[in-house]
Amino acid sequence: MATDTTTVHVALSERSYDIEIGPRLLPEAGRFIVERTGCSHAVVVTDSNVESLHGQRVVESLERAGIRVDIATVPAGESTKSTSHVDELWRLMLEFAADRKSIVAAVGGGVVGDLAGFIAATYGRGIRFVQIPTTLLAQVDSSVGGKVGINLPGAKNMVGAFWQPAAVLIDTDVLNTLPLREYRSGLAEVVKYGVILDSDFFKYLEDHIDGLNNREPSVMRHIVARCCELKAQVVSADEREETGLRAVLNYGHTFCHAIEAETGYGTYLHGEAVAIGMLCASRLAEAMGRIDAELTRRQHALLEALGLPLTVPDVDHDVLIRAMQKDKKTEHGKLRFVLPTCLGHVELVSGVPADLVRAALAG
Ligand code: GLY
Known about the structure:
Layout: E1 6-10, E2 17-22, H1 29-37, E3 41-47, H2 50-64, E4 68-74, H3 83-95, E5 102-108, H4 110-122, E6 128-133, H5 136-142, E7 147-152, E8 155-162, E9 167-171, H6 180-197, H7 199-207, H8 209-213, H9 217-237, H10 253-263, H11 270-287, H12 293-305, H13 317-326, E10 336-342, E11 345-350, H14 354-362
Parallel strand pairs: 2-9, 3-4, 3-5, 5-6, 6-9
Antiparallel strand pairs: 1-2, 7-8, 10-11
């Protein structure tokens, strides 16, 4: 691998794996996958947007490495994370004569990674898979940590598994071709890591707004690597979100999920709803006397400089609160939030009164 490549290790005993991050890595995918898995057959799962842009390059690289390759291209978009596409992909895997020596390579954003990972977790009672994320959001969050799954009508990510990849390959050059709105959406999750775990990283983001907006290669490499390191630490400490540690990654997400559900999925990109959700959670923490207004102000200023939406959409607040009570992360309908105590530290807080949540939504 090139010298400008960073390796992050996810320590999970026998399920441990490496994340390789750097420029010009897609053409190395074949070698990388053979080294990590020793496979002889790969099924590349990608979507209709990514196939010609990046998927074919991964296929060619795998072929150069002497691997038999099949490709399954699903339609782009959240509605692909459905039982009907799972059914179709299971049948394709059979047609491709995939067996336990085969691997699934997910080349795409979060939808492709979650769906392909779910196929890998279930086909043949589980085969190995490699994540090759091509959106910022997938590179800093969804491709790491083994959460895979699909949606049920009206219930996002309701069916799935924890199935860790055998490796993750992140080519930061692919960020150059991301549509601006999608790129910015990924930046919201990047800001999240600073607030929840790393005040120095938050300051780095404040100091590199131009580099972030201009997608400067060195800034891209640094932010992706740092977010992966932070996520790796959290996942190693609480793989299955059992102790509350992994739950810190859900900062802003209780508000975010309600906004996504009640505005109709697709109205807001996930990161856009996360940005609004983080500001709501921060105001809530302020109202509970956990932080002062300065921390909310800094998040607001940074998210605004990165071009993210900041205001709660025009939806009845009681409707949003009811959606939060139904969230799969609530315990028996009690409102539960990840709230900051200072920059770089958050706590999981249960039983928050609805009137404080209403006030936080009102801004
Ligand atoms: N995206 C949250 C998690 O991986 O736990």
